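For the sake of transparency, this paper describes our internal protein records without simplification. Such a record has a labelled line for the sequence and another for the backbone structure tokens. Nothing more is needed to write down the fold, since each code stands for a local backbone conformation. For reference, a complete record is included directly beneath this paragraph.
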Amino acid sequence: MGSLTKLVDILDRHTPGNGTYGTPIPGVSLIRSDTPTMPMPVVYEPTLCLIAQGRKRVMLGTTAYVYDPARYLVASVDLPVTGAVIEASETAPYLCLVVDLDLAELSDLCLRYPIQDQNDDVPSAGIALSDTTPELLDAAVRLAALLDAPRDIDALAPLMIREILYRLLTDSGNNILRQMAAADSRLNQIAKGIAWLRAHYRENRRIEEIADIAGMSRSTFYAHFKAVTSMSPLDFRGQLRLQEARRLMVAEAMDAAGAGFRVGYESPSQFSRDYARMFGAPPATDASRLRRMAQASAACS
């Protein structure tokens, strides 16, 4: 049985239905879908997404990232994206192993295994795709196999996660991870601005204020922010607002006017226009459709 077949078998057995599953291994989760999915907005935190079976498309701004068992995805900072499973079936479900990226471990590995000619002045995009190597896949299989040997998790999982991070760092295309680990890198300066925006997205602040938090000039911050996120700071804030408004309407049954006001909109008409532009339907129509889908899914499970 090859490594990929082993990983499919493990993830299939530990995901009894569609959805995202936490595991006894800290920082590791599993995702399953038996069907392709509609594009859904989510916020990616720093993670490795390694697909064992199926295919997914993620949109960051106007840039599309398509990955599958041959290519893995790394997100380096908190990013609002729209993701959709585009290849899945009941006989061959989409299966994905997700590993949170531990910044302390990455920093230690970077210090122990430095590389030459690293350029931190030009930040990479916040999402990167790379080829899945046999070494990385083998480490992922051994990590996932601990789900069948829970008594070994405390002793062995940290070692295997560290090996996975090492494999990522030694991939020639992953300068993005070394930028994450460098405290004075441009990427980390942008990450400070992103963290502030996530915490204060309801507030109307000038770009200069956010740039000051990141320790950069307005023009430098704007240029590097767009390089990392594929969108301007204001567009980034707008996506955070609209995603939260959608959650409020679907999960808490809040009306459109109340949700728009809660996330920082002063004009209901502007909220409706922005919402329809992002999600393809007016707020009330979209929220009603999603609630019906959730109810239908619950009835079938």
